[in-house]
């Protein structure tokens, strides 16, 4: 069955993306509209991911985050404003996403646990791991790997960020076999634009995967250092290996 044609309001809303030849020729906008993305984490990484995917026209967005907005979040978690302090992040993020694009169906998910995650993945096209703790990252990684899924992964702390598209080709445990001792943003601090930039690249990788365009970061790890402005793309070892080449 062919995809439903874009409506006039959709054509106008997405007109600038449709001017990109690779996007138009791939029928990427229709692919994105038919997709369902689960975004786990609505903080510094998840804020730009949710906003960008909503703006891009992802058909269904499910946002999972059981945290509440804190005053210390506001310098980097761009979906929130001062009046939102104390409110549930997932609810605020979903409401903001809906105002960005009324064509998108936005849902709020319960806390991600070993019991809830398999059910949340049912019917989901792609997972974006925008969490900031090891327990959630490895739960998502192990569950997606067990289901043979791809997922978008990113991390940001201090002045550095990383992004990859994990899946059967290479997963989180192929790069970091066990949780390390990296500090969270609450412990190590972070400059606001660092997770914003990292999250935007995560959203871009998600759109490339969903739209079938370009060369997603499959089997590669993008890293950058904000203070020097240097970025590198590292080739990952295949499953069964360890680390990067």
| Beta-strand content | 15-25%
Give the fraction of residues assigned to helices: 25-40%
Overall pLDDT, averaged?
Answer: 93
- Helix/sheet category: alpha/beta
What's the assembly state of these chains? single chain
* Low-confidence sequence ranges: none
* Largest sheet strand order: 3-2-1-4-5-6-7-8
Order of helices and strands: HHHHEHEHEHEHEEHHHEE
What can you tell me about this protein's structure?
With 245 residues, this protein is of the alpha/beta class. The chain contains 11 helices and 8 strands. Strand 2, helix 6 and strand 3 form a beta-alpha-beta unit. It is globular.
Q: Short summary of the structure?
A:
36% of the residues lie in helices and 18% in strands. It has helices at 8-13, 15-18, 21-25, 28-33, 46-56, 89-100, 117-121, 134-146, 172-175, 185-188, 193-211, and strands at 36-40, 60-64, 105-109, 126-129, 151-157, 160-166, 220-225, 230-235.
Keywords:
245 residues; alpha/beta; eight-stranded mixed beta sheet; 8 strands; 18% strand; globular
Give the secondary structure arrangement, pairings included:
Blueprint: H1 8-13, H2 15-18, H3 21-25, H4 28-33, E1 36-40, H5 46-56, E2 60-64, H6 89-100, E3 105-109, H7 117-121, E4 126-129, H8 134-146, E5 151-157, E6 160-166, H9 172-175, H10 185-188, H11 193-211, E7 220-225, E8 230-235
Parallel strand pairs: 1-2, 1-4, 2-3, 4-5
Antiparallel strand pairs: 5-6, 6-7, 7-8
